[in-house]
Target: Molybdopterin oxidoreductase
Amino acid sequence: MTEWTPTTCMRCAVGCGHLQQGYTNHYGLDTVRGDASHPVNRGLACQRGIDETANPDGKWLTRPLIREEGTLVPTSWETAIGTVVSCVEDALAESSDGVAVLGSGQQTNEAAYALGKLARGGFGTRYYDANTTLCMASAVTAYYQAFGSDAPPPTYEDIPDARTHVVWGANPAVAHPVMYRWIADSASDDDGELIVVDPVESETVDDADLHAQVDPGTDLAFARAVLAQIVADDAVDREFVAEATTGFEATVDSLPAVEEATETAGVPVETVERVADAMTDSTLVYWGMGVNQSVQGTATSRALIDLCLATGNVRPGSGPFSLTGQANSMGTRVCSSKGTWPGQREFTDPEQRRTVADAWDVPRDRLPDDPGPGPVGIVDAVADGPPEVCWTVATNPVAGMPDAS
Ligand code: SF4
Model:
């Protein structure tokens, strides 16, 4: 066997640290296990992560392939790299937007940073994004609107300190199993509580102290009902709201009557009262694709953030905590130079642009003026121009885009 190699499990958004040991006499992995020194999983790893990492569905790609007469055939690295360089140079000769680049939440921070540096500082293209702003577009937009930057304020370290854990439109018991251990451990404390908001009786519901079984498509109505109840209960953290928010009264004025909204959501008023009351404790609100991937996804994500802001739950041990689908969606969004420059530097700020260009040692005017379209707009542009070359990294837009057929 080869030496143990530390790496990251890419099978779900937890991104556990793994140790891998390869075969010495042929390609592939002999043993995969959790890394005890990793802060997220502390040696744990789920069976799916182990199995799918060691034995992925499909063949290992061990050589570059090039299409010849309609068929992909193995080629040398020299030929492959030469072909890529030549295509990219031809496309960039026309315009810096001649190349589109699509990254992925399967990349490490370092890989995402390097790809962004190449796309923005090397090519200078506007047509650059990752699939992470596709599945998470609602949460991304909501964070920008609420906080001016794209990232959930809490970290895993906040989970043990929270008392109320509200899981909304997600099933972390199955989809994020190692992270769910953190949540379940904290919620099982004497003063802990697990509330699940979901039309589905999921595996996470099996452990819940309260299941708010809203009707499908009514998450926004339920969230607004809870905020209306918090206002009615005079449970708003007025000091925090005055200090850290704007527009709160306008938000309150826009709220529906509790009874009306609960009727829309298909739950009894008592359920709303219970959730509103629980949120007066330190609360983490986790939400997943059940919220994000909806025509009301951004509004519902905003409503969940509003719940946290109204109750002062943007402090240690609390906060809005969207759950991604891939191991490093968040790292990609923070490091990749898409909506902001690395380190959440504002994209259009001249000083930040100067800092980035100087650090990369590239002409400042090579950086595109605006972040460009998202993944769907990029794929549309690849069809219609100007990009002539599309470089994808660990993503499959042909399968993943809406209306892919
Ligand atoms: S919880 Fe997720 S990241 Fe961790 S081992 Fe399982 S699949 Fe991999």
About this structure: The mean pLDDT is 94. The pocket of iron/sulfur cluster is lined by residues 9, 11-12, 14-16, 41, 45-46, 48-49, 177-178, 327 (CB under 6 Å). The chain has four domains: 5-54, 63-94, 95-133+329-400, 137-322. The radius of gyration is 23 Å.
